[in-house]
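Good morning,

Both structures are done.
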Amino acid sequence: MSEPTRSRQDPPVEQHCDDGCCAPTGAAPQAQREELGQRRRAVLIRWLRLLVAATISYNVIEAIVAIGSGVAASSAALIGFGLDSVVEVASAAAVAWQFSARQEQVRRLRERRALRIIAVSFFALAAYVTVEAVRTLAGSGDPAPSTVGVVLAALSLVIMPVLSLSQRRIGGKLGSASAVADSKQTLLCTYLSGVLLLGLLLNGLFGWSWADPVVALVIAAVAVKEGREAWRGDNCCAPGGLALATSGEEPHDDCCD
């Protein structure tokens, strides 16, 4: 005897499963989505902390070598580059302090303070480097060639873009303006490495001592620009601070990709 067939008018048979195994793809419960978002956010924060630690470690070494070789060669550009590394350490430390808090609300409150620390560091760097560059151009002494400085600038030109891009992507996904500002400062170090390398090579190969203070003034001008942006919080990924909600939703901005 054949089984009776269900007519087209009959209501569909409902599937019952308490564990959600029958739910269609993409229809996970809201609680589950939030849990996955929180887990991913925790992983991103751990990666950000590692990148900040790597940035601090490298810049401490960079600052010691650059300032030491800059003093030996009377190079305002090398000293300015070393001081920029000190600012990098202060900036990265500010981000590390911000993300050391476990509570989201506390991290939000620390956001503005971290940005102000970064901005003030930029301004201090610009002021000092400008004074030293003007003194050199006024004839207080010609900077000597520095092989150590050339090697350091070349290394930074390779290492800094990797650190900057990685931190910028993670900072963008977290919606952290201070993390993005710090990554921009690391990227600034990349540009300055290229300018510094050019200035040191011009001085070493052609004896153009004026190239050194000119490079220093370029460093100061860029530092002022970045300092103003950090002070105003003009960072494309999170103008309002840590905008990522605890729901785990991820903000998207092309400038942070």
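Second structure follows.
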Amino acid sequence: MKWITKSILAALALLLFMLRNAFQQNLKSHTVELPAIRPFKPFRLMFISDIHRRTLNGNLTVNPVDVVIIGGDLAEKGVPLSRVEHNLKVLSQLGELYFIWGNHDRNVGEAELRKLFEKYKVTVLENEWVTLFGNPQLKLVGLDYFIYEKDAISKAFSGVEPEDTVLFASHTPSIFKYVRENHPADFLLAGHTHGGQIRLGRYGIAEKGRFRKMSGKTELISNGYGTTKLPLRLGAEAEYHVYTIQPKLSEHI
């Protein structure tokens, strides 16, 4: 009987550990140099994805940021709009807000979400690009999760020139390879996978989040901030990111 009791206690301890992990607030910070034919002033960017059911508090960062990208799954079915509004209010106090749709967001009610986006001056990127800080050669490209729209990626990059400095945000990282090979994108950001959420050593249902250089590009796949279904994490910590973006001048200038 003792081994049964010990096994139950160990299982409960592991469950509590995973529950604690799911509600941690881990800030990952890096400095990123991006190629720039036309220099731009360094800026700070926050990327946060997969908030789902979590409630944000006001201490996400002690230093101001210039741009906040919400990388999809701000909410999911069953999340009260009051919580979504609270989270948008917190994020809007940090910097200029940009949003891309995730696979769960529209389940809350697209019309209601759009009203909140308008209230908090959120720019929704749906297969389109915008310039940042008035610099016509510094662009943010955002892709709607429903990428199966005809020519969605080409539409998103229309007007983007090879010499531009380009940040690309998508909820899913599954299209990174295609974008790297077919479009000018210097910094690619995504979430969606939760890093597998519950991992046994190296093994999980999805690859663990990562920040890396790939084919001369910089990539972030975030583990995400929240969880869906079970509020449990193991081996894939909850996280969000703040990057200092600096220009790396072209040698051809």
